[in-house]
Amino acid sequence: MSDTDRETIILLENVDKFFGDFQALKNVSLSVKKGERVVVCGPSGSGKSTLIRCINRLEEHNSGKIVVNGHELTGDVADIDAVRSEVGMVFQSFNLFPHLTVVKNLMLAPRLVRKSSKAEAHDMAMRYLERVKIPEQADKYPSQLSGGQQQRVAIARALCMNPLIMLFDEPTSALDPEMISEVLEVMTDLARDGMTMIVVTHEMGFARSVADNMVFMDNGEIVEANPPLEFFDNPKNERTKLFLSQILTH
Amino acid sequence: MSFDIALIADSIPKMLAGFAMTFQLWLLSAVLGLALAVILLIMRISGRWYLAAPTMAYIYIFRGTPILVQIFIIYYGLPQLEFVRESILWPVLREPFGCAIIALTLNTGAYVSEILRGGVLGVDRGLKEAGAALGLSVSQRFIHITTPIAIRLCLPAYSNDVISLMKSTALASTITLLDMMGIARTIVAETYAPYEIFISLMVIYLFLTWIIQRSFGWTEKRMSRHVRSEV
User: What is the ipTM of this complex?
Assistant: First the structure.
């Protein structure tokens, strides 16, 4: 499918976000097409997380416009709920519900939000646990799993809502090195199946192989946005060059 | 000093006759106090100042004054007021038992609501965000994520309050109720043997405390299944 046939599923126009006096996002505009994989990188504190947290309204933007799958994010609760049920999110710290077993973590939202029956929710949960290759952990509690397994459960939990879009907020940053690849593998799989994804990460190998578009942020601004080939081999902006040299040399 | 064993053997059954009263005072005010605490908690964390401010004042007053004074005000003070005697609450307030329950409930409710608030505030923000990101509504998040985790966090402090409430029931004896303490005081007045009687009474209270402690210990263990692998 060529780029022009695809419809825009996420649109940000001139978005500003303040935390008190601190401006976390400065006039950010971004458009993501259906099925597109966008990797966002940049130094810490550059606004990457804030950017994706605005897309499902975990943060409220102060000005500008955000439209997700046709719903504009205003104060309207119905629109926020609509967007959240279509957008899955994976966090750096997994955020699995510690008091529920793995399978119940996966069943909670389908039961409560989609009103699925217990059997339906259970079937779907097991299907996604198989997809992330840990069905045998279904009845354990999150604390009994390794970090990599927990993050895969978190991905499966988000997928159980059948989202159109997946947001990943530094999904491998809290993991021991030997567990990073198992999570990236699941994400690559997902990308191959055509999921629309925005991924905040420093895993440049993953970015190179999966991303359709690279976005580099610094100081709350999108400094550069280009397809990976051009982004890595021919960065335009000085700040991008500096960042890439720092992150790719070690 | 002689220690009259026969007197102890004789008086323990008498004091145990007051156990039903002690137990009723404790259980009723624990249950009503917990219900009150939940209401206070929801008002306190509602984010609306006109609900939060009176709650804070209430908690300040009831935590900041001796429970004995609260019991006396309710038992001796309120009946002085004309409108109290005419209100529908008069049948309750006329009886010392009703007054004791009201005083203990109001007092423990104030403490417990702060304990619950500590638990609610202790729930990791990331978990609530995960719930929000999955599309759960505010009340679904509160019921299915915050509450179960907060209860586990509260239990140790709450068991403390339940034990402390059990001991506070002894104050009801000051407004003529014949709980275990009330009976003990009567026996002491008759026999003038404070050591034997009060020490026996202590043993009974210690036994009750032990039972409460064990039940909470068991509940905590059950509710910590999910973290046991880390312990």
Answer: 0.91
